[in-house]
Design brief:
globular, seven-stranded mixed β-sheet, Amino_oxidase, FAD/NAD(P)-binding domain, 36% helix, 470 residues, Zeta_carotene_desat/Oxidored, alpha/beta, Guanine Nucleotide Dissociation Inhibitor, domain 1, FAD/NAD-bd_sf
Length: 470
């Protein structure tokens, strides 16, 4: 009897030990690196490649099962051809060409295509009475005037947000006032189309209107753009995955970020177990929205919390659908009947573009900061409503949309109020670089443009990280 009792006690003890072992799980895989990078999109991947080339070890933490961020591709089953539904083209710059070459990806001059464009108000389905896009002559004159203004007043605004102090009043006023004061009305639709998902452009601070249509973008328009020769811009990130190999931790969820004077420690969960990255420096390459960072295990300083709490992002994404009523090789562009400059009503689609030789329709949608919480179903219902309006008005044929691809890039064009800008927000933001062994990067610090992000990283951020590691 006593032996039985002892044996049962032994079993209970062993069971408790086993349960405790299960609770803690297997030991995490520990990576010791010079730099831990959270975010494997455009900015994080470029920084990882460049730091590797400079002889430093990195670990890239990415929540998706691949690198690339907004660079997403849909392969058309009708033709087998890739359709870029995120990043479509890149500036033709030596830095960009060198980066593609480094990753073994050939480039080609981008074909921006041409089609029969019709301008319709998707909210009503009707054409806008009296609306005509700007003539080439008017557009050319406006571009020349704009170029002169930017070169004269804001020559240093292309990369980043290193603004004069105090910030010029003109940059804080609504973009519509800047347009009217300088006779740039012919330019507005071009800016809004190129810089999609910029909210109601006419009421945004002029700073953001200029940032999305920067001098470097103007130069690129004149020179032309490039993309992957295969037509699939994801090739760039496949090349990066091959180069970085085991230094990339995919499908990961950041659980805890500890930063101190001696370095950083980042704990993540992955499908294959826990990973702990111990590094000298941390590079954050995800949108610095306060609540998002906290969900990712960040303990923010008072200054970080104040600054990141100011940020808001826009709704933006893309879809591919089929619809029997949309003609091939036709583009429908959304214009607003009652809005300033006849810009589209948000939330809404920027346009529908039929792929040549196929019934696949590309669609880009967007909204303001207040629309960012829209669900996938709500966005699809919005698109269905627009197509119903166009069909009812007789501007497209009968059909029912079938969605074959959907992606939401929100938060997009992360921004702050003009009041925050006036108080030196971007000056204070840039002062965070290097504090607590942490650096920050991404579109929020430059613009939603991979080529500009890479240029800013090369010229501004990378030297600072390298100096801190010396």
């Amino acid at each position: 009897m006593r032996l039985t009792r002892v044996f049962l006690q032994f079993l209970a003890s062993a069971s408790a030990v086993h349960a405790q072992s299960d609770k803690h799980g297997p030991k995490p895989r520990v990576l010791e690196r010079d730099v831990c990078i959270i975010g494997g999109g455009s900015s994080g991947t470029f920084a990882a490649v460049r730091l590797t080339d400079e002889g430093h070890s990195v670990a890239v933490i990415e929540k998706q099962d691949h690198l690339g961020g907004h660079t997403v591709t849909y392969t058309n089953p009708d033709t087998g051809k890739p359709i870029n539904m995120g990043v479509i083209f890149f500036h033709d710059l030596p830095l960009v060409r060198d980066y593609f070459s480094r990753l073994g990806v050939e480039v080609q001059k981008a074909d921006l295509g041409s089609s029969n464009t019709r301008y319709l108000d998707f909210a009503t389905g009707e054409a806008v009475p009296g609306f005509e896009p700007a003539s080439q002559e008017a557009l050319g004159a406006a571009l020349e005037t704009y170029s002169e203004i930017i070169a004269d007043r804001y020559p240093n605004i292309s990369l980043g947000y290193e603004l004069p102090d105090p910030v010029p009043e003109e940059l804080l006023k609504p973009y519509s006032e800047f347009v009217e004061a300088n006779g740039l009305q012919a330019l507005v639709h071009m800016v809004n189309n190129i810089a999609g998902a910029n909210g109601n452009l006419w009421e945004r601070p002029t700073l953001y209107g200029i940032k999305v249509f920067s001098p470097m973008l103007l130069a690129a328009i004149n020179k032309g753009f490039i993309n992957a020769a295969s037509g699939d811009n994801r090739d760039l990130y496949r090349g990066a995955e091959n180069l970085l190999g085991d230094d990339v931790v995919l499908s990961s969820t950041v659980k805890r970020v500890e930063r101190s004077g001696s370095g950083v420690e980042v704990s993540v969960d992955t499908p294959s177990g826990k990973v702990v990255v111990k590094a000298k420096k941390l590079l954050v390459a995800i949108p610095p929205i306060k609540e998002s960072l906290r969900r990712n295990g960040f303990s923010l300083s008072a200054q970080e919390s104040r600054l990141f709490g100011e940020f808001q992002g826009m709704l933006y994404g893309s879809t591919v659908l089929t619809h029997n009523g949309l003609a091939e090789n036709t583009t429908l562009s959304n214009v607003g009947t009652h809005n300033p400059y006849h810009l589209l009503t948000l939330p809404g689609s920027y346009g529908y573009s039929a792929e040549p030789g196929t019934r696949k329709i590309k669609n880009y949608y967007g909204g303001t900061a207040s629309d960012i919480g829209m669900s996938e179903q709500e966005i699809k219902d919005l698109i269905r409503g627009e197509l119903d309006n166009l069909e009812r008005a007789g501007n497209i044929g009968e059909g029912e949309p079938e969605f074959e691809f959907f992606v939401n890039h929100s938060p997009y064009h992360v921004h702050v109020s003009p009041e925050a800008i006036a108080k030196g927000f971007y000056r204070d933001l840039y002062e965070l670089e290097g504090q607590r062994n942490t650096f920050w990067t991404g579109a929020t610090f430059v613009d939603e443009d991979s080529s500009l992000i890479w240029s800013w990283t090369e010229e501004y951020l990378l030297p600072r990280i390298l100096d801190s590691l010396a």
